[in-house]
């Protein structure tokens, strides 16, 4: 598909050049995604003894070769260099947010969840067109809060109604992957989907500990399948005639992360929420998203990656679990087109994922793994957290306090947090307990 597009674009641009028909069109065609040969990746390695040694790029060396030895030089120079590399080579550049935020609060119910919460539902519009892409936010705020509360913000996989059986939650009207056993049919959510993911959203505990929970369906921002970027928010920002993002422009993960920033724009206007204390979190592909959201938007006070794996916290150079090649092959829409250039030369990446973690510095960041989640490479996730430490040290911030992976279910919490728990790829009450403890620690709540 991309191949054909590319050759057509080339032929057309040559023709236009010859007849002198307009530079704007030429620019537009040059921005088409280049062809990346789609070649099946080798099977993934899950044998630690077969992992070759790796050399990680040094976060503390400027492109000029000069060493970064102080926090100021990091913040003024090096952080921007790294962010720019991640933008152009991996996630893609995103547009700015809309100049004016338009939203409608369509539900505000006191005494929700048996009296424990105030439930709010808000539609955030991504453009002036109310029929265009928009996202429904669901907020639960502790009922007894006497002042603005800190919040956890994370996207969900199945629509807001899936996170709790609360009959007051609006059922998502957006595209869904069919999973009839869970109540998703004809690409829509039905009543049967209420609460199907409540196991992953420990709402009662979050509220009891004094935090609000804010969530939105990730598919409101961009449906999670490769349609050549015709649906979702991408087309809102195309230049005249543009039909897909340029090779260095945002893929779907960057779009989801951008949506999280728009959610934060709304939270800044909601007096119930302390928007300076919002922890952004996500699981798996949404864990990759939370990390990128925290890198792009420094308003997020804490960033939490749950089992984010390849493209998230996992070191890309480590030949274990999912590879860059495999992720680009299986999910061609997640990253920008440039990222596929590294499929078979991952050691040429100008960064590795420890540098993504370091982009959060000096803010608290938490990386969590699960013992049986080998596809996500728990050790690779730990190493990224560990090797972000030199940047935190510039700020005098404590790192993990360990050099080796901690034992199962023994969280380590400095300004960087990490745990590996027993069990599989999932979000569990144990994970939530650690995140709440971490937030309490850094928000001075204990
Ligand atoms: C796949 C993918 C992972 C991703 C996961 C998820 O397993 O390979 O990279 O994290 O889906 O989002 O659940």
Polypeptide structure, described:
This protein has 446 residues and is an alpha/beta fold. Helices cover 29% and strands 17% of the residues. The protein has 13 helices and twelve strands. It has helices at residues 2-18, 23-30, 71-91, 112-115, 203-208, 218-221, 252-267, 285-296, 324-330, 353-358, 378-386, 389-394, 429-442; strands at residues 102-111, 117-125, 134-142, 149-156, 184-185, 188-189, 212-217, 273-283, 302-306, 365-370, 412-413, 416-421. The strands form two sheets. The protein has a ten-stranded mixed sheet, sandwiched between helices. Strands 5-6 form a two-stranded antiparallel ribbon. Helix 1 packs antiparallel against helix 2 (23-30) and helix 7 packs across helix 8 (285-296). The protein is globular, with a radius of gyration of 22 Å. The protein starts with a helix and ends with a helix. Residues 284-285, 309-310, 322, 327, 375 line the site of alpha-D-glucopyranuronic acid (GCU).
């Amino acid at each position: 598909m991309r191949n054909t597009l590319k050759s057509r674009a080339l032929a057309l641009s040559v023709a236009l050049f010859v007849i002198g028909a307009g530079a704007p069109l030429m620019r537009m065609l040059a921005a088409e995604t280049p062809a990346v040969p789609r070649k099946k990746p080798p099977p993934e390695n899950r044998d630690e003894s077969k992992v070759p040694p790796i050399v990680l790029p040094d976060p503390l060396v400027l492109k000029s070769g000069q060493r970064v030895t102080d926090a100021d030089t990091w913040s003024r120079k090096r952080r921007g260099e790294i962010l720019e590399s991640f933008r152009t080579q991996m996630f893609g550049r995103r547009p700015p947010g809309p100049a004016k935020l338009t939203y409608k609060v369509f539900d505000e119910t006191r005494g929700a969840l048996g009296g424990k919460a105030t439930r709010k539902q808000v539609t955030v519009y991504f453009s002036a067109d109310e029929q265009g892409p928009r996202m429904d936010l669901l907020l639960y705020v502790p009922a007894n809060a006497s002042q603005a509360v800190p919040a956890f913000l994370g996207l969900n996989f199945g629509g807001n109604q899936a996170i709790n059986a609360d009959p007051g939650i609006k059922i998502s009207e957006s595209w869904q992957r069919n999973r009839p056993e869970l109540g998703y049919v004809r690409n829509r959510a039905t009543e049967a989907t209420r609460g199907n993911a409540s196991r992953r959203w420990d709402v009662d505990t979050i509220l009891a500990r004094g935090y609000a929970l804010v969530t939105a369906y990730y598919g409101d921002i961009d449906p999670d399948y490769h349609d050549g970027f015709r649906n979702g928010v991408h087309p809102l920002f195309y230049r005249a005639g543009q039909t897909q993002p340029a090779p260095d422009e945002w893929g779907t993960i960057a779009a989801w992360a951008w949506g999280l920033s728009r959610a934060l724009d709304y939270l800044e206007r909601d007096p119930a929420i302390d928007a300076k204390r919002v922890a952004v979190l996500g699981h798996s592909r949404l864990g990759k998203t939370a990390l990128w959201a925290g890198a792009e938007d420094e308003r997020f006070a804490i960033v939490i990656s749950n089992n984010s794996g390849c493209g998230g916290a996992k070191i890309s150079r480590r030949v274990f679990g999912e590879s860059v090649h495999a992720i680009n092959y299986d999910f061609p829409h997640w990253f920008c087109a440039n990222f596929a250039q590294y499929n078979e030369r991952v050691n040429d990446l100008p960064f590795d994922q420890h540098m993504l973690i370091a982009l959060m510095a000096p803010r608290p960041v938490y990386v969590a793994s699960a013992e049986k989640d080998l596809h996500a490479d728990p050790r690779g996730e730990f190493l990224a957290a560990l090797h972000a430490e030199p940047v935190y040290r510039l700020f005098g911030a404590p790192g993990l306090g360990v050099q080796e992976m901690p034992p199962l279910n023994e969280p380590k919490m400095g300004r960087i947090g990490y745990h590996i728990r027993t069990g599989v790829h999932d979000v569990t009450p144990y994970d939530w307990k650690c995140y709440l403890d971490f937030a309490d620690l850094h928000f001075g709540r204990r």
